[in-house]
Amino acid sequence: MTMPEQPITSNSHAIIFDLKALTQFSDSGPRATILAETGAAQIVLLALRAGQRAEDVETPSQIVAQCLRGRATLRMGAAVQALRAGLVALIEADTRHTFVASTDCVLLLTLTPSPDHRPAHDLLAGVAPLVVRDPA
User: Of the residues 6, 35, 50, 83, which has the maximum number of CB atoms within 10 A of its CB?
Assistant: First the structure.
């Protein structure tokens, strides 16, 4: 299934995302795709080439970060945690953190609740969600 590049509103009870097809790497920096914005949650697919970083991320939302492919390092202050495919990190709201790709990697981020009226990070500025659901 090919997903549209523009946001859509859907009345369907289920939407299937082909994460493999939607993963896009960029040699110029991390590449973020907002899969869905529901008000209750924002789901982001983040692709990083080896050595790339998404740094100084801080959001009022709690983040569940699932490493789908490759390896990365999660840094929070002096704390460092290695992530590899199959691991999930729970990052509390308002916690400054950085993802650094050790290899090409893909992370699936679920932010709850959705960040209000501002992107969670500059990587998301100007990125339109593929699916928008009215929280009402």
Answer: 83
Query: What is the pTM for the complete model shown?
Result: 0.86
Residues of the chain with pLDDT under 50: 1-9
Cα angle 5-43-48, degrees, rounded to a multiple of 5: 75
88-91 vs 62-69, strand pairing mode: antiparallel
Q: Is residue 75 assigned to a domain?
A: yes
In a domain, 5, yes or no: no
| Res 119: pLDDT | 59
CATH number of the domain where residue 107 is located? 2.60.120.10
Question: Would you state the torsion angle of the CA atoms of residues 131, 47, 22, 28, taken in this order, to the nearest 10 degrees?
Answer: 100
Strands (E), 5-48: 8-9, 31-37, 42-48
pLDDT of residue 12: 63
Tell me how many domains the chain contains: 1
Domain of residue 78: give its range.
36-115
Q: Where are the alpha helices (DSSP H) in 18-76?
A: 19-22
With respect to residue 40, please indicate whether it lies within any of the assigned structural domains: yes
